[in-house]
């Protein structure tokens, strides 16, 4: 079998990167796609569109912007072969499509289903003009946290924990959701470990407590300096990582050369190579490589390469009027249908102390933002001048 990757000419704002250059779980989308194909023994070629494919044999085709798990591709090919006709990958509308911000993806939508740019073609002699939907129900493993009704209209904010996600990368919010899907994919794989592996893990843990077992299931890289009072659960830690005293890391992916200080909490997030985190709580967020942050909280946000987030900077993720978050795409305002979503900082953005970014906003590459000059003490009068001012 061969795969044809359909090139995309679009750029993802505010980064200006192509979808294939988007970083998902520490690697580019292009690299992830090709790695899965090679593992499945599928050769591949880049083409401009479906009309450029002149292949009479069995093959698949997908957009350069499509992120998918290996399990999903395997099942899609298996079910498609049974159909003996052309097929398209289709997901039933639900929590998964909402949480992955389907309104920002360039997919084919109807009232109850979503068709992604992932296609299967049987041999030429078995093809027909009809295209059949291969349906995936991604609502089976929903988890979440309790939340007051006045905040979201529901008693629980649900999140799918699955091993077969698919997301099209057409907006920065899709990069964010694909990264969270990759972190939760890790969690799903750990939970689906064989009973034999879990049994021996429990023996080594000297406990059948699920949290102690989750600690044992984490993967730690080489040459790491991890303080004995830190707690790491269900996560992947890269090489040469420093983790300080009292730090908690749960269900997250940490890149190489990351420095994480004392008493920091990182939950369900992806932290890129060579980031430095000296303060706070990072929740459902994605930090591209070489981010430096000292702020107290980063929630549901995407931070580009080489950014600085100053002390007290606030990346808000909730609207006080109770409405869902709006974002901008191609100059138009689009409703995400989500109550919670933070913001996006482009590459090389510096956000000064106590700056506040509204939910759903994106900041262009290279901007350095600080408070107004009259709110910053940049100089101080001489002692004699100061005395004259106070005497008045």
UniProtKB/TrEMBL annotation:
Keyword terms of this UniProt record: Acyltransferase, Cell shape, Cell wall biogenesis/degradation, Cytoplasm, Magnesium, Metal-binding, Nucleotidyltransferase, Peptidoglycan synthesis, Transferase
All residue ranges annotated as the Mannose-1-phosphate guanyltransferase C-terminal domain in the record: 219-283
Pfam family membership, one: GMPPB_C
Family matches, as SUPFAM superfamilies: Trimeric LpxA-like enzymes
Molecular function in Gene Ontology: glucosamine-1-phosphate N-acetyltransferase activity; metal ion binding; UDP-N-acetylglucosamine diphosphorylase activity
Function noted in UniProt: Catalyzes the last two sequential reactions in the de novo biosynthetic pathway for UDP-N-acetylglucosamine (UDP-GlcNAc). The C-terminal domain catalyzes the transfer of acetyl group from acetyl coenzyme A to glucosamine-1-phosphate (GlcN-1-P) to produce N-acetylglucosamine-1-phosphate (GlcNAc-1-P), which is converted into UDP-GlcNAc by the transfer of uridine 5-monophosphate (from uridine 5-triphosphate), a reaction catalyzed by the N-terminal domain.
Protein's name in the database: Mannose-1-phosphate guanyltransferase C-terminal domain-containing protein
Record organism: Candidatus Lloydbacteria bacterium RIFCSPHIGHO2_01_FULL_41_20
Taxonomic lineage from the root: Bacteria, Candidatus Lloydiibacteriota
């Amino acid at each position: 079998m061969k795969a044809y990757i359909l090139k995309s000419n679009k750029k993802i704002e505010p980064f200006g990167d192509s979808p294939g250059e988007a970083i998902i779980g520490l690697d580019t989308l292009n690299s992830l796609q090709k790695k899965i194909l090679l593992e499945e023994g599928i050769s591949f070629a880049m083409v401009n569109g479906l009309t450029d494919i002149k292949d009479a044999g069995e093959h698949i085709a997908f957009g350069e912007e499509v992120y998918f798990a290996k399990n999903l591709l395997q099942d899609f090919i298996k079910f498609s072969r049974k159909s003996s006709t052309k097929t398209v990958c289709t997901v039933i509308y639900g929590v998964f499509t909402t949480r992955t911000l389907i309104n920002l993806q360039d997919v084919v939508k109807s009232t109850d289903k979503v068709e992604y740019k992932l296609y299967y073609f049987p041999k030429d002699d078995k093809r027909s003009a009809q295209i059949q939907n291969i349906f995936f129900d991604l609502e089976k493993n929903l988890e979440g946290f309790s939340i007051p009704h006045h905040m979201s209209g529901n008693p629980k904010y649900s999140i799918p924990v699955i091993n077969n996600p698919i997301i099209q990368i057409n907006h920065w919010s899709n990069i964010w959701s694909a990264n969270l899907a990759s972190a939760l994919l890790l969690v799903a794989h750990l939970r689906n470990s064989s009973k034999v592996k879990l049994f021996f893990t429990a023996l080594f843990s000297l406990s059948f407590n699920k949290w102690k077992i989750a600690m044992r299931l984490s993967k730690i890289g080489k040459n790491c300096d991890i303080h004995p009072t830190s707690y790491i659960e269900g996560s992947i830690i890269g090489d040469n990582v420093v983790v300080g005293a009292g730090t908690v890391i749960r269900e997250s992916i940490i890149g190489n050369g990351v420095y994480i200080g004392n008493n920091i909490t990182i939950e369900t997030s992806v932290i890129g190579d060579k980031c430095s985190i000296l303060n706070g709580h990072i929740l459902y967020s994605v930090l591209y490589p070489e981010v430096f942050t000292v702020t107290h909280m980063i929630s549901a946000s995407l931070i580009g390469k080489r950014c600085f987030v100053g002390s007290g900077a606030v990346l808000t993720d909730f609207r006080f009027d109770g409405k869902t978050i709006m974002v901008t795409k191609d100059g138009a305002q689009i409703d995400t249908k989500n109550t919670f979503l933070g913001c996006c900082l482009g590459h090389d953005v510096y956000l000064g102390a106590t700056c506040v970014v509204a939910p759903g906003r994106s900041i262009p590459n290279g901007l350095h933002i600080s408070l107004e000059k009259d709110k910053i003490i940049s100089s101080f009068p001489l002692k004699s001048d100061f005395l004259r001012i106070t005497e008045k």
